[in-house]
Amino acid sequence: MTEPDANRDDPETPAARWHSLWLLTLGPAFWTMHFLASYITAAIWCAKFAGRAGSLETVRWLIGGYTAVALVGICLVSWFGYRQHKLGQATLPHDADTAGDRHRFLGFSTLLLCGLSFVATVYIALTVVFIGTCE
Amino acid sequence: MTDITQENLEQMDRSEDEAQKARLKKAWKTPEGWRYWSAVNNTEVGRWYTAVSFLFFLFAGVLALLIRTQLAVPNNDFLSADLYNQVFTLHGSVMMFLFAVPIFEAFSILILPQMLGARDLPFPRLSAYGFWCFLIGGVFVCGSIFFQVAPQGGWFMYPPLSTQYHEGLGADIWLLGLSFIEVSSLAAAVELIVGILKTRPPGMRINLIPLYAWYILVVAGMILFAFPPLIAGDLLFELERLLGWPFFNPEKGGDPLLWQHLFWIFGHPEVYIIFLPAIALVAMIVPTAAQRPIIGYGWIVLAAVGTGFISFGLWAHHMYATGMPGISLAFFTAASEAVAIPTGVQIFCFLATALAGRFVHSVPMLFVSGALAIFVLGGLTGVMVAIAPFDFQAHDSYFIVAHLHYVLIGGMLFPVAAGLYYFYPMADGKQLSERLGKWAFWLMFVGFNVTFLPMHFTGLLGMPRRVFTYEAGLGFDLLNLISTIGAYIFAVGVVILVWDVVRPKKKQPHARRNPWNAGTLEWLVNMPSHPWSVRSIPIIKSRYPLWDQPNFIRDVDEGRFYLGDAAEEKRETLITSTIDARPIQCLRVPGPTFLGLWAAVFTGGVFIFSTYHWYVAALISGVLGLITILIWLWTGTALIPEKPAKDIGLGVTVPLYLSGDKSVGWWAMFITMIGNMSAFASLVFGYFFFWTVHEDFPPDPSQGPNALWSLVGAGCVLGAWALTLLARQANRKDRAAVFYGALILAALCCVAGGLALFAGPYSSGLDPKSHVYPATVWVLVLWSLVHLAVGLIMQLYCMARRLAGRMTAEYDIDIRNVALYWHFMAITATVTVVVIAGFPRMV
């Protein structure tokens, strides 16, 4: 969706598109999905398959896979964010009353949120490095 | 000749200015006499809301003093064990549900429109309804202690303690009273999200909005995902207590841990729902005190949004001691440590801003400094207890009591006190006393630390929380006495603060305009303020327009921006586009009414009568509530304007009516339904939770529900959905016959779908009292049935609207919003049937 009157042709005044706002939440959304998938997988594995003393070996590989997907996703989103942030010549703090600075600001915030999501996802993944059973 | 013309022109200007002000004044006039209570304007409702939340705070504070008095010495008999349980339960519940969350809604309703240069929020009557719900529910819950029937299970009300061991109405009062208040929180969340996204002043692009608005946007979004799980949990809990459906009873397959999950999926984000708005106040106060723009605006947005997400991954860190697998604990430890990152980032931004600017000493800044100091200490113990092995030692001890009070008082109460001193002139036109403020601060700061610092040691020595007394000689005696003395010092500070607010100020002159020399829009307010808020709605070009935009206040005051007039003497505010804030609509907002109050009284009746099992009275109250809400909708919403568009000044003309995804009502419906979906998802979570903990859930061989009936039910509901969409299209093309035909068929499909869904478990003879499996199936069906009933009323309402000429092909808000509701209805019914009838056949 595009807002009315936005000048789509001028690269310095990018249109106000919804996806630039949603992009902001995409990095943390990857973290959320990764967290939930890891938690649910481990919970079901321990409750239904492995039992209380069972090994987490399969779950480790699964969570390793989730982590790879999540981190690649976060890196992709941060690349989009970075490109938005670097549009044109302007530098931080992106507080001018222009479509360009609005665009750069959303890109910069996306980038920062991806950084946080990356670290938080690695934190979650580290748990299966240290814990090997359902105990 | 020229001079005379000039003079005439100026005179004309002045008289026009006076005429415009008179029209604005008439449109926004606050009702007088007993009708004052029909006011819905944000300034009135915001003030009532703030005052009432503070009253609840003082009430819960008195309860805290009773607790500390009882614990001052060992083997004390000041309170009985029974009364003590009621006192600490109400203290926690009232502080959390009736002060900490509502105060942010109250503040936001009061100051957010001013911050956005708006005349009001888009749904003033909804705010008023929310306030009255809050007042009625709050008085009901608090009043219970005077009849010795207050809840006793602690503020998280764990079963089986509160299902099997507590006689009486206490738990019902807690569940129903607080569920009712959660309705008002959801109403506020809808209001605030739409307010921030759609009522910003022209030019206030998303990179220029005040940080307060960013925080509130995040928090309101969090409410949509955090409160509904508790509402779902309350529903299960009440079904168990009132009807004996055994969701939490292990003898019949239930599991008390489900309540803990649902409660903390709400409860942990709630800590951040409390903390973020308070820190948002800090984000407004610090730049003013430093007299410079905030450092790291983007970083603070990162902190707000990041915390909003990660705070949902922390819930089970309240459940470390329940015996979950180590790996699950580790996930929650990891997330709990990660949330410290964004929390720390914003604190560094505030410190950097304060240090980089010209620091002006003031009472608000004193409270902010105290808040940061206390909160950082609470945050550090939080990082400690987030680590499972440490928590095993500290769990349910006074160490936790110390930690949570450091977090909540540092993270919420002190910033709120700062906000009170800072924003008070906006509400009253007068400033609070600096001398009294300093006294209040130092007494509160010292008293707080004297009370709660020793509790860390009391806890580490082994004193459990929630015990009504303790033996002498265990090492607790002196520490407890010190805590009690501290609590009284703290209370004296609070009394001074309260006195400063309520002391007569008639002789005190009004504060000068923008008393703190702030840069943000809310300080355009006149001292005293006008009910219409701003004289004209300005064009914004900076994050701090009062500092950066030349002649800004003069231009606003002279009505040189938008909507400087109310030509039709109607209440109007500007709706702008979400990202770049371009004017897209002139929204007529409704004026004073008692309908919101009556709707709250009747909906309150449903909850309150149900508590006492007076189901007939509850039913009558519910019907009256429904009628009131229908009258409210019929007379006050989606009104067809007398002309399609309006000149709002500066040569801009915008429509007076928008429907579909451009209308604020559509947004409100969408946001409400997101919240609704998260409650439904919590019930589905319950089903799968039981699947993971039981070998025989769903039972094999299948006990039901009947798959055919369930499928027919889903088919009918999907048919009703498709027909409702067809009716929407037909209405837009003005084909009346198709419209009515489709809606009549849709209504019939809706009824048939409801009956078939009911027949699914009914024909299989599933008895919800016998075991948790049938109870879980029934609760999902029940949820769909209630929503189908609402969907049916909506369909009939749309037919009536068109018949009455209140909805046309062009002015079609009603059917567009109803179609949106039906999208979610279709999802609800489909998921229900897939889960109850499909899943047993998959496993």
From TrEMBL, chain A:
Keywords: Membrane, Transmembrane, Transmembrane helix. The keyword Transmembrane helix applies. The chain crosses the membrane at residues 20-47, 59-82, 105-131. It comes from the Bacteria. This is Uncharacterized protein. It comes from Pseudomonas duriflava. The lineage of its organism: Bacteria, Pseudomonadati, Pseudomonadota, Gammaproteobacteria, Pseudomonadales.
UniProtKB/TrEMBL annotation, chain B:
This is cytochrome-c oxidase. Residues 28-553 form the Cytochrome oxidase subunit I profile domain. It is a multi-pass membrane protein. GO terms for molecular function: cytochrome-c oxidase activity; heme binding; metal ion binding. It is found in: Cell membrane. PANTHER family: CYTOCHROME BO(3) UBIQUINOL OXIDASE SUBUNIT 1, CYTOCHROME C OXIDASE SUBUNIT 1. PROSITE patterns: COX1, COX1_CUB, COX3. It holds the Pfam family COX1. It comes from Pseudomonas duriflava. It catalyses: 4 Fe(II)-[cytochrome c] + O2 + 8 H(+)(in) = 4 Fe(III)-[cytochrome c] + 2 H2O + 4 H(+)(out). GO terms for cellular component: plasma membrane. Belongs to the heme-copper respiratory oxidase family. It is an enzyme of class 7 (translocase). SUPFAM superfamilies: Cytochrome c oxidase subunit I-like, Cytochrome c oxidase subunit III-like.
